[in-house]
Amino acid sequence: MLELFRLEADTQTAALSAAVLAIEDLDRSPVAIESMMRAAHSLKGAARIIGLDPAVRVAHAMEDVFVRAGKGRFTVRPEHADVLLASIDFLASIGRCEDALAPDGPWPERASVLVGRLGDLLAGGAAEPQHQSPTAPGTPAAEPPLAADQAVASTAVVRTDAGSPLRPALPEPTTFDESAPTIPQPFDQIDRVVRVSADSLTRLVGLAGESLVETRQLRPFVDGLHALRSTQVALCDTIATLDERCQAGEVPAAPALAAVLDGVRERADTLLERLTRHVEDFEGFARRNEDLSNRLHHEVIASRMRPLADGIRGFPRLVRDLARTLGKQVRLEVRGEQTGVDRDILDTLEAPLSHLIRNALDHGIESREQREAVGKPAIGTIRLEARHRAGMLNITITDDGHGIDVAALRAKAVARRLVTKPVADQLTDLELLEFVFLPGFSTKEQVTEVSGRGVGLDVVQSMAKAVGGSVRVASQPGRQTVFTLQLPITMSVIRALLVDIGGEPYAFPLTRIDQIIYCGHSDIRTIEGRQYFDRDGASIGLVLAAQILDLRAVSAAPDPMPVVVISDRGQQFGMVVDAFLGERDLEVRPLDPRLGKVPNINSASLLENGNPVLIVDVEDLVRSIDNVLTGRQLSRVEFEGMARKVLRRKRILVVDDSITVRELERQLLQTRGYEVDVAVDGADGWNACRRVEYDLVVSDVDMPRMDGIELVSLIKADPARKHIPIVIVSYKDREEDRLRGLEAGANRYLTKTSFHDETFVHTITDLIGEPIG
Fold first, then answer.
1. In this structure, what is the dihedral angle of CA atoms 49, 54, 60, 62, given to the nearest 10 degrees?
2. Residues 498-518 pLDDT 10s
C-alpha cells in the first residue's frame, strides 16, 4: 500500500507543482483551482487509507485553501507559492521515507508547522512571511520571496507549441474571468495503464521482431510459387501447341496418342488452375501476415515509448527555484512535450538536460539590469524543444543570454595546456566550442553550488554517446546559445549502414558515422609510417577494418575504396571496408551476457533473410584503432601488396609416403604454375596445414603415423581450414574405398592412373582455378 501511495504522490504532487507555478504567472482560472483541489483531495484519501496522518493533515489544509479559492472566498496570489510548494515537497517526500509511519518521527511536527502556515494564509491572506519553511529531508529550503514587482517575472512559465501544457500541468495561463464560460476537464482523464516489468517488455519486443523477420521470409516462397506457376503456364502452352499441330496434321500421331495428349492437356490445365488459386491464396496469406506482424511490431515498439513530458516534469520547478537563487528572472518554454521517447533513453535524459538548463541559467542568462542595458526583455527565456526528424529524436535547449565567450574558451584551453597558443589562435569558433565537453573544463572563475566545478557538459556528451547519439553546441555572441542533442527515437530499433568486411556483414549506426566516401589510391599519403587522406581540409587517418576486427581480407582494395569515417572525442579515422551494402532498420538484440564484452561489438540483429549481423561499437572501435596505432601494431594499407596477395600463385600441399609419387605430383603441378609443398605422411601434412595457408591438399590414403582418411577428417573438422579442397589420390580403386574417402570429406577421389591422361591436373584446375588468381 505504501508503494502505491508513493506512485500516486509522484503523479499528484507533479500536477500540484505545475499548477502552483501557473499561479505565479497569474493563472487563477476555475479549471486550475479545481484541478489543485481534486489533487489535494486524492492525496488526502490515499494517505488516510495507509495511516499517514501527517500527510492527511497537510493535504486537508491544502484542500481547504483551494476549496475557498474556488468559492471566491480566498485569492491565491503568487507570493503564496512558497508555502504551497513547501507543502507539496512534504507530501512528495513523506511517501519515500522508510520512517513515514513511525509515530515518533519528525513528520508530525513538520506537518503541524505547515498546517499552521496554510491556516495563516486563509486567516489573513497575507503575503509569505520572510522565513524559511520547514521542508522534508533532502529537499531544498524555499528562498525568500522577491519584491512584489519581481514575483511574477522570476518564476518558470511552461508553454508548448500545441497549446497544451506538460502533462499533467494546467492549460495556458489566462486572465481570470469568473463570467467566462469554462469547459470542465477532469484532472484524472489519462490513459489507463498496467505495470509491466521492463524485462518482460524487452522480451516482447524481441519476439515481435522475430515474428516480423519470420513473416518476411514468406516473400521468397511467394516468388517461388510464381516461378512455378510460370513454368506450368509454359508447359500448358507447349502441350496446347503440340495438340493443335497434331489435330492439324502437321505432326503425325496415332489416334491413341492424340487421345492421351488431350488428357494430358486437360490435366495440365486443371493443375494450372489449382496452382493459380493456391498462389493467390498463399500470396494473400503472406501479405496479411506481414501486415499483421508490422502492426504488432509497431505497437510493441510504441508501448516502449513515453512522452518527453514524463521525464521533464520537474524542470519548471528547477528553473523557478534556481532563478530565485540567482536573483534572475527566467521563463521556461517547452515545445513538443508529447514527443515519444524510448523509456530507456528517457530515463537517462533528466540528468544531462538539467545540466544544460543549469548552465543556461548560470552562464547564459544575464541579470535583469544587464538585459535592460543592452535592450533585451527583462525576463530571460530558456526554450526546450523536441521533435522527430529524419528518424531521430532532436532536442534543442536555447537560451537568449549573452552566448559563449569564445575568447575566454581559447584562453582557458591555453591555460590548461590543452593546446599551445599558436594552435589555439588558428582554431575556428566551432572547434573551440568542442572544448566545453571536456571533463573538468569550465570557464567559471568562481566555484558556486550551481556551477564552476567543471562537471556537467562532459556528462551530457557521455550520455548521448552511450545511447548512440551526439551533441552539438552553437552560439551567437550577445544573442543566444543552442545545444542540440540528436538521439535515436528508440534503442530497440536503429537505422544503420550495412558494410561488407571480410565477407561478413557489419552494421554501423548512422548516428555514429561522420561520413562515407570513396577514396582513391592516389589520394593516400604517408606521414611517419601512417597513412592519411584529406577531406574538407582535415587529415584523417586510414586503417583497414578487416585488420582492426581481426578478419581476413577477401579481396584487394578497390580503387576507389569505400571508407567509413568515424570519430569519438576528437579522434577521427577512416575505415576501409570491402563494400557498402545499403541502409537498414535493425532490431537491436543484446549479446548473450555469458560472452562478456566482445571487443568492438555492441549488439546484434537479424536481416530480412534471417542472417545475423553484428552492430559495431564505434567508441570501442576508435579506442582499438588508437591502441593499435600507439603500439605500432597496425600495418599500412598496402594496396599493391593486397593486390599481389589476391593475384599470388596458388599453393598446394602434396602428402604421400612415396617419394616417387610425391615428386611426380610436385612436378606436374609446378609445371602448370602452382606453388607446391610436400609432406611424407598424414602427421607431417597436418603440421604443415597448421603452419601455412594452402589453397588445396592432395593426399594418399595408406601412410604411416596418420593415414589420409584421418588427415581429411582433421582438416574438415577445423573451422579455420574446413574450406580447403582435398583430393585423394590412391592405388585403391574399389567403390567402398572411394565412398570412404568422400564420406570423410574429400572433394575428389582419384586413382594414380589419372597421371597418364591429365585427369589429375584438370581436377586441380576445376577445384581452385588457374595457378594465378
1. -130
2. 999 988 899 998 878 888 999
Is the pLDDT score of 136 beyond 60? no
Q: Which residues 6+ apart lie within 8 Å of 622 measured at CB?
A: 566, 567, 568, 569, 571, 573
Kindly give, in sequence order, each residue whose CB lies less than 8 Å from that of residue 255, ignoring residues fewer than 6 positions away.
Answer: none
For 258, the 3-state DSSP assignment is helix
Provide the grid cell at 709: 582418411
Closest residue by Cα to residue 29 from 67, 70, 62, 59 = 70
Task: State the fold for domain 493-639.
Answer: OB fold (Dihydrolipoamide Acetyltransferase, E2P) (2.40.50)
DSSP state of 494: E
Contact 136, 89 (CB under 8 A): yes
pLDDT of residue 569: 63
Decide: helix, strand or coil at residue 471. Answer: strand
Q: Which amino acid is at 313?
A: R
Q: What is the pLDDT of residues 666-724, one digit of tens each?
A: 888 888 888 899 998 898 899 889 888 899 999 998 888 888 999 999 999 888 888 99
The 10 Å Cβ neighbour count of residue 734 is 9
**Residue appearing with cell numbers 516468388:** 223
Q: Which pLDDT does position 146 carry in this prediction?
A: 36
| 3-class state of residue 651 by DSSP | strand
pLDDT band for position 81 (50/70/90)?
Answer: confident
DSSP label of 503: T
Burial class (CB in 10 A: 0-12, 13-18, 19+), 249: exposed
The residues with which 134 forms a beta bridge, in sequence order, are: none
The 10 Å Cβ neighbour count of residue 673 is 11
pTM of the full structure: 0.53
Residue whose C-alpha cell reads 593415414 in the numeric block: 707
How far apart, in whole angstroms, are the C-alpha atoms of residue 773 and residue 758? 21
Question: Residue 623: what residue type?
Answer: R
Cα–Cα distance for residue pair 203/351, rounded to 1 Å? 27
Q: Please count the residues of the chain.
A: 773
Q: Which residue has the higher pLDDT, 565 or 427?
A: 565
**Confidence category of residue 180, pLDDT binned at 50, 70, 90:** very low
* Domain ranges for the chain: 2-124, 200-305, 313-488, 493-639, 648-768
Q: Identify the CATH class of 313-488.
A: alpha beta
**CB of 613 within 8 A of CB of 607?**
yes
> What CATH number labels 2-124?
1.20.120.160
730 close to 752: Cβ distance less than 8 angstroms: yes
Confirm if 617 and 597 have CB atoms less than 8 A apart: no
CA dist., res. 171 & res. 30, Å (int)? 11
Has domain 648-768 been given CATH number 3.10.150.10?
no
pLDDT in tens, 260-291: 777 888 888 888 888 888 888 888 888 888 88
Q: Which three cell numbers stand for residue 31?
A: 479549471
Res 63 pLDDT > 60: yes
Instruction: For residues 457 and 471, give the distance between their C-alpha atoms in angstroms, rounded to a whole number.
Output: 10
| Tens digits of residue pLDDT in 626-640 | 777 665 444 455 554
